[in-house]
Amino acid sequence: MKIDTVEKVHSIGYRLKDAKTTLNQDVKIDVADLKISGTQGEVLNIPQWVGKVLADKNLADLDSPDMVTELKQALSKEKMVGEYQLSTLDSHFYIKLKEVMKDLNKDDYDHVESIMLELFRMRRGKLVKLADSIKLNSDLYGKLTVEEAVFYKSIHDNSVEFERQIKGEKNE
Description:
By secondary structure, the chain is an alpha+beta fold. The chain has 7 helices and 5 strands, in the order H-E-E-E-E-H-E-H-H-H-H-H. It is elongated and about 70 Å long.
């Protein structure tokens, strides 16, 4: 499976998750099976995509995580755990980060992108080493983003196939 396909599916799933949203004015929405109503100042747990639409129209404030701080913390943790260990990232970490990066100005975007690439390169190196030696297990899977899990499986499968080709078949 391709990373972009997995990422699209998980992006949809992420946007369907509830997010805290503070209403800036009274709201009543009734579309299809989605019914949302609340008064100014009320905090609702509503699907993130709905909260984003309301926030874009200044009808509400969407409580979103500070992904820049999370990114810096993730990089710091990754450096601390060592060369052969991975720190745990939320499975939608890169999806959330890219969503936040869309709204940054050019200078901030460039700065955040450089931190993200440093984290990505560090984790990619570790993933290649690990995928070459062990099959993905539940403990390791729990530390990976959805994109990293696809990458890991691809590296592992290619490594196993390469080894098989080098060793050759016994009955040839």
